[in-house]
Design a protein that fits this description.
Ferritin; 10 helices; mainly alpha; 274 residues
Amino acid sequence: MEFFSTLEQILQIGDPAKKIAHCTNFYEAFTKGEVKMEPADEPKVFESPSYAAICTIVPPTQVPRRSRFGTTEGRAVLLHAIAHIEYSAIDLALDACYRYRDLPWQFYHDWLEVAMDECRHFSMIEELLGELGYRYGDFPVHQGLFDAAMASLDLISRMAVVPRYLEANGLDANPKMIAKLERFTDDMAKRMKKALEVILAEEVEHVAKGDRWFRWACKRSGIEDMEKEYFRRVERVYPGTLGSKEGLNIEDRKRAGFSCSEIRLLAKKEVDCQ
């Protein structure tokens, strides 16, 4: 089994169950030392996301709004949105392993670990979605995460834009969803809340891995002002990031590697960060 060619195949699998099964088998083989790294071809720039085979892709403005958490459909919309993020995150982690060559073994191990976490998160959310009578693909989705990844193909940009910007935004959004679910006392609401808490706790480490490899890549390239470089890279993909964020999860961002100066630059309003 060859590392990069196998990952290319897994990345293009659209069916979630098949992707997760192949990803799991690949991870087990990798950790046992049964995978060789002998790349024959340059990495592809994919034209469409793997989930295009099972999901209707629409502009972000046409995706169902996450609201009415007290209704079955409202909860299904929320769970579907989370499932889509987690499914996309599987591919983003695998793509990080596939796209970048001749890096330390720990890099590949870190992002395969992240991929396995995302597989577990997706399965956890998909199970809850199924109990409500829905499945992944029942609601339209957007491909914003895929587009951002394909717009940040070099290592420094990818680590800045995906884990250190997009996944870090999840650290801010997740507690807000948890707070909304706390109003409900039924079993499903409690289980949804618990699932979100698990995801939040584990996503901190995902962002932290992105932070470590962003700094590693900057250092390798001789970049000394990493905070300036971070915002420069993110602004290329998401103009207007500086001073645009409200409700920042300061403590989890700090745990994941953000400095107070970065948090203040992100925040729309003055924040208490020490």
